[in-house]
Amino acid sequence: MDTTTTLPALAWSGATAFWHDLPRNLGAGLLLGLGAVPLGAALVAGAPGWVAAAATLPVTLALTGLAALTAGDGSRLTVLFKVDPVLALLLSVAGLALLAPWGVVPAAAVLLVGPYALAYGAVRGKRGLAALRGGVILAAYRPAWALTLTGLTVIGAFAAAASAGVLALVAAPLLLTIAARQTAALLAEIDALQAAR
Question: Is pLDDT of 4 > 60?
């Protein structure tokens, strides 16, 4: 394996790419924060569980636009409006599933597959079920990378919560930039394997 496609090298590459586009990424993080306002209001107000679960949809919708931006799909923030409503709805189903006693399982699956599904959709231009399928394949192809990205996502979520949402401006764009770098490397590796057959 080439040393540039190791997990630490890709994480560093994603972090430096995030840093080079810091103003744009902070603006994208701010728009994501605005998408999280309904969810935060529902949680603070003690709204019924189904309201809080449904309020995850604006967040996942904003994440699909953010994934397009972090994958290098454009140089302007208008890329954020290239959202994927079907993928956002599929990812927000985990929020609804949390109302059930078994809801931890779909939520964990979204944490494991979600970043790759968002990145795959942005890198390959796939939408909806095709993006989710690509995320599942990438997570199954390199599960150690998927678990590492899931761990980073959980740490980022805790950091965002501990900072009262301030670090959310940074965490989501940074994680999706790293996911986009990992996805591009995995797709290049898979394409090379298929071409060799």
Answer: no
Mapping DSSP onto H, E and C, the string for the chain reads CCHHHCHHHHHHHHHHHHHHCHHHHHHHHHHHHHHCHHHHHHHHCCCCHHHHHHCHHHHHHHHHHHHHHHCCCCCCHHHHHCCCHHHHHHHHHHHHHCCCCCCHHHHHHHHHHHHHHHHHHHHHCCCCHHHHHHHHHHHHHCHHHHHHHHHHHHHHHHHHHHCCCCCHHHHHHHHHHHHHHHHHHHHHHHHHHHHHC
Residue-wise pLDDT for 73-99, tens only, equals 556 666 777 888 899 988 887 766 666
The yes-or-no verdict on residue 1 having pLDDT over 50 is: no
Q: What pTM does this model have?
A: 0.86
- The position carrying tokens 């995850």 is 56
